[in-house]
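REVIEWER CHECKLIST
Item 1: Sequence provided? yes
Item 2: Single chain? yes
Item 3: Sequence as submitted:
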Amino acid sequence: DDDDDDIDTEVGGHGNKKQREKLQQIGQGIVEDIVEWRRIQPSSQLELISIYDKCLEINQIRELEELIIKTKLNEKKEIVTISNVKREMIMSALEMPLEGGKHNPGDRVCYCRGSGTVVFGCKGTVVGLVSDKVLVVFDEETLDGTNLQGRCKTKRGATLENGYLFNTTTASQMIKS
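Item 4: Structure as written out by the authors:
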């Protein structure tokens, strides 16, 4: 067919239709080979994070989680009773975000929101800062907890807004000075 031998000037003007199809197949094969090669590289298993994020490594998070579990097994619970406080006085304050809270990986925090995915008063450890969120591994598993995308083995993790966490590490440093 004479049409197959004509040079296609509308689409780049390179070769005939059969040649273009063959080049496209070769190119597609090369791309597939590159994708497969990338998939089997050890670096493909690494989590992609922003250079501005601060996060502990997955093995550090898992070690922390194991330490929390071991510690919780030996911990004695202390019950504190507060009386004569109107519910409105507590709940309205708990719905307001805390201002100026700064967190770093390794800091101990307490969840201070009256509602949400975590129970009020849960204590945990900051394991990462991603964009405007704080990654926390809590001392107790929570009903809506996550495994932080595979970083934890249990559902102790949560990704939370900065304003609902009270930093007990920096608070204790302020009291000492």
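Item 5: Key structural point noted by reviewer: Residues 17-40 form the longest helix (24 residues).
Item 6: Recommendation: ____
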